[in-house]
Amino acid sequence: MNILLAGSSTFGVKNLGDDAMLSCLVLTLRLQFPQAKISILLRHPEGDYGDLFGIRVLKNFDHDDSESAAGRFFLGLNEGDERRQLADIYNEVASADLLIIAGNSLMALGPPSLFRGVSSYATLMATLSAFANTPYIVWGLNVVDPLEDPALVAQARFLIGGAGSVNVREPAALEHLSDALGSAAVQKVAVGTDPAWGLDEKAVGNVDTTRLLECTGYRGLLDGQFISLNLRSEYWSSSPKDEYQLGQGLEALRWATERGLDVLLVPNCVYGKGAKLQDDRAFHRMLLERAGSPRNVYSIENELTVFETVKLLSFSHAHVTNRRHSAFFSVMGRVPTVVLSTSLATHNTGWFTQDARGDHSGVLLGETSTAEALSTLAARTQPLSFPNIDALRQQARGEIVIEAARENTLGTAG
Description:
- With 414 residues, the chain is of the alpha/beta class.
- 40% of the residues lie in helices and 13% in strands.
- Strand 1 (2-6), helix 1 and strand 2 (37-42) form a beta-alpha-beta unit.
- Helix 4 (84-95) packs across helix 5 (118-132) and helix 5 runs parallel beside helix 6.
- The longest helix is centred in the N-terminal third of the chain and has 17 residues, at 16-32.
- The N and C termini lie close together (10 Å).
């Protein structure tokens, strides 16, 4: 069986949350289809990315960076482009038994346009699947804002209408789709959970701690006398909360210093070919500069895999972050975690369950003061409670529904 993954450019761009979701998807497919040959279309197919997940990697329609993409359509669709790329991708789609369009396939940082952007990429892949008569499903979709642009609504209707099944991460995504498309159009949409919970925990357990020590350059890693911190810039927002985030970061640094703890700045995205400050390390350097580069603060500059990052955070005394998946990773290790709000409030904090909000919860929202939240966690004498990771892991690895996808085509792919 041949399975082709088309990640709408969200995979392979050094975002560890997306890598965690890909790990979950591949593991789910391996459990359900042990003999399947899995391939993925990526913007950057070079390097050992495929080896990390045990899959074959291929070049997709994307340009390599935002500069080379400016004013152009996808690769192969511009005047003077080499067309071989189009034929190669079509042949991959045609030879697949199943196409999975995964990730934030309806994400739009600007108005959707012809053959540009994430949502247009997803609908292009769905179009190719129709020409090739290859069934496709939409998996791990998240819709964080209402669908208001008519072009985006049309793309959503087309993408979901042609899919054999659609899986979204949380109820808010289904609500946005239903509001835009109508309840009849979303009957096939199932609400799951964030796929990042289902990353391969065995791969985390197999991480070499010696390599972690070398990559971080922090010799006290295994002693646990440090807190970890990950902050992202709201580079996508017209009114970013960056100054608020930096202020909360400075609070965390002061709190740790007063208690004789070190601080590790642990990036969750290190992609340098997109928007300015998309790389967390750049934002961390701003924080370091504001703080006067204290000697007890260490910024991790080397690139770590998602599995290495989860392992690293498990040694932390406490973790502070304004990134959804960075919080997931620390919670997986039952590390006390403070989550800061962003302009995407429902996306960042909507994953909290009631059992994670109790008086003994190990996860707190830093709604007013990071220092106060850290002190509250430190003062709790009873064992801290965390979300049920095993249950979330199993939910994230739910069955891939392929029969419905086949029934939505005129026949099965060869």
